[in-house]
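Treating backbone geometry as a discrete language has practical consequences that deserve illustration. Part of our work consisted of pairing the sequence of a single chain with a tokenised description of its backbone. What the numbers capture is local backbone geometry rather than side-chain detail. For completeness, the protein is quoted in full, as a sequence line and a line of structure tokens:
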Amino acid sequence: MKNRKLVGVSLVLFLSLISVSAAGCSSFSLVRSYYVAFGRVIQVDEEGGFFGIKTDSGGRLYPVNLPVEFQQDGISVRVTYRIAEGPATQDWGTPIRIIDIRRF
């Protein structure tokens, strides 16, 4: 009985220590660092015109750094991206920063 109580207390202390360590660790994050999507590059004729990505799941992505060679209406792409920080310059889709983009 005494050993069971000691094991229970040890387990609670261990889990508490992990929780405190994770909360104070700057590399610990519950937010995804990147995303992957498949879709088509489209030319949007709003707000002066720009290129966006319409994902296969129906989402709209506004890439702030779309390479010139991908600025072609209708091409299929696979894009790896992060959510862009700061204010959006277009009111269309989710602003993203491309990490990698390839024709698909």
Summary: Residues 20-27 have pLDDT under 50 and may be disordered.
